[in-house]
Design a protein that fits this description.
Structural class: mainly alpha
Order of helices and strands: HHHHHHHHHHHHHHHHHHHHH
Number of helices: 21
Number of strands: 0
Distance between the termini: 40 Å
Largest sheet: none
Radius of gyration: 22 Å
């Protein structure tokens, strides 16, 4: 198994370096892959950046504990990816931006750009890198007995080598390869669980015996994730994550043209159907296997994915599974590092040194990526205090996302959304989210702490909308020539452009409606 893992890591690093060093990169090549990305690679890269060790381990744990409930985070993503394809991507491509803070400056003002840059860097370090490293460390420590911090540091540094040297082109190419490896490994686990259990009907029979058939339902009326929280709260965090987060949207910014920028997210939307069946369902199978005595259950459900690898998969294939875990970890880290380097170079360094050459921008990006990696590793002990890593991630996102989702949505759909109002919304909304998060952690028994995090995201979003609308009337928008082109005159306007994205959007909506009707 160790030989397979070593060969895999060596191959990925070699491919990443070869891709990134085929020619000396200019800043557009390094950060945006020379704007040459086509829709298949964009879709795969979006999926790979989203999926990580965190997903494999935490979703398996969720399936083991709660059944298919957390699948809402995967399937609801399809709806926000449709929003990205229809409404957001065209603006990003047409405005010729390199970062999302750059877009906010053109739509609003410089203050909005600066604030989003800061929030984007903090969220990338915390959510996209640190949590992924933590999950990977737990798995590697369980499998090989290697100290978590040592194993994570080694893998992180290896990933940094091809990311920092090769830029976005190296990231996207290696992500596309790693997506295939990741899905292959997850499919192997799923088949092993299915075979060991004796099929779907055997699994449902055990659930029925134990009075747990509700675990097959995606939409429930009780618990920490009731159905109304899914439909009210997920769009808030989903729009931020898929439509307004630099780490994700950077793949769109590297698109060859607007059509590829629109079809890529829709392709990813179809791929996002898979995680429920290959990440969460194996955890549910493991639960029934444990109840029938066919699997030795771990003391802590966090380790269920590791248990499935060691007990259900032949040793020869176990190396492929571990390689899949490493591929997810490396994809998440590499994508976030490249986004941080882009933000620091274009939104911070170039602002204070407008005459900076391409070589200087790339150098600054590489330095900032290295510093971000060190900060992420330092956060591991703090984040390890969460009982559920998946809930920990979404809890933090629920307090970060509302003001950002608000200013992007109102900015694109309402011409009256003013720069001063957006500036105040980002400031007040972010401080309010940080205050609520801090109070709930210091005083976990207060009434606010009892609100499900998805509903908290919705409530904070409503407050942010009230703030921005109110201040927009107090401080009316004075549009520039550029900002006047960066909002839709009507919701139907984006549908006027020709392309297959309209048919694909309808097809994706239809598929999701059918799936939800089956697993409601």
């Amino acid at each position: 198994m160790i030989i397979v893992v070593i060969l895999y890591i060596t191959a990925i690093v070699a491919i990443g370096l070869w891709t990134g060093l085929k020619k000396a990169p200019g800043s557009k090549d390094y950060f945006l892959a020379g704007k040459t990305l086509r829709w298949p690679m964009i879709g795969l890269a979006l999926f790979a950046t989203n999926i990580s060790c965190l997903h494999l381990v935490s979703l398996a744990q969720s399936g083991y504990d709660d059944g298919l409930l957390s699948g809402n985070f995967e399937w609801m993503a399809a709806f926000t990816l449709i929003l990205l394809a229809l409404f957001f991507a065209p603006f990003y491509i047409r405005s010729g931006i390199s970062t999302l803070p750059d877009f906010l400056e053109k739509r609003y003002n410089r203050a909005c750009r600066d604030w989003l840059t800061l929030i984007s860097i903090i969220s990338a370090i915390t959510i996209h890198i640190a949590f992924s490293l933590l999950t990977g460390g737990i798995v590697l420590e369980t499998l090989f007995g290697v100290n978590m911090y040592i194993s994570v540091t080694v893998i992180a540094c290896i990933t940094a080598v091809y990311t920092i040297i090769g830029g976005l082109r190296a990231v996207v190419v290696t992500e596309s390869i790693q997506t295939i490896v990741l899905v292959t490994g997850a499919v192997i686990i799923t088949i092993a669980c299915f075979h060991k259990m004796g099929g779907w009907h055997a699994m449902t029979a055990v659930l029925q015996e134990q009075g747990q058939l509700h675990k097959l339902s995606m939409l429930r009326s009780d618990g920490n994730l009731p159905w109304y929280a899914v439909f009210l709260g997920y769009p808030v965090i989903g729009i931020w994550y898929w439509c307004a987060d630099q780490t994700i949207v950077q793949r769109i910014l590297g698109a060859k043209d607007e059509n590829h920028a629109r079809i890529g997210p829709l392709f990813c939307g179809f791929i996002k159907i898979l995680p429920v069946f290959i990440f969460i369902l194996p955890g549910l199978f493991a639960s029934t296997l444990a109840q029938k005595g066919l699997l030795i259950a771990p003391k802590d459900s966090k380790g269920i994915y590791t248990v499935m690898i060691t007990q259900l998969v032949p040793s020869g294939l176990a190396g492929v599974i571990v390689a899949a875990l490493l591929s997810g970890l490396m994809s998440q880290v590499s994508g976030a590092l490249n986004s941080i380097s882009t933000l620091v170079s274009f939104d911070l360094y170039k602002r204070f040194k407008p005459s900076a050459s391409d070589r200087q921008l790339v150098s600054m990006g590489r330095i900032s990526a290295g510093i971000a990696l060190l900060l992420s590793i330092c956060l591991l002990p703090l984040l390890n205090s969460y009982n559920s890593i998946f809930n920990g991630v979404n809890d933090i996102i629920s307090h970060i996302a509302p003001p950002i989702t608000c200013v992007f949505l109102l900015g694109i759909f309402w011409s009256g959304a003013s720069a001063r109002a957006a500036q105040l919304t980002l400031l007040i909304g972010s401080l309010l989210g940080a205050l609520v998060y801090t109070v709930n952690k210091l005083y976990p028994d207060n009434s606010l702490a009892q609100i499900p995090f998805m509903m908290m995201a919705f409530y904070l979003f409503i407050i942010c909308c009230i703030i921005q609308v109110s201040f927009s009337f107090i401080y009316p928008m004075q549009h520039t020539t550029v900002s006047a082109t960066l909002y839709w005159k009507s919701p139907l306007e984006p549908l006027k452009n020709k392309g297959s994205y309209k048919l694909l959007s309808v097809l994706l909506l239809l598929v999701m409606a059918i799936l939800y009707s089956i697993f409601k």
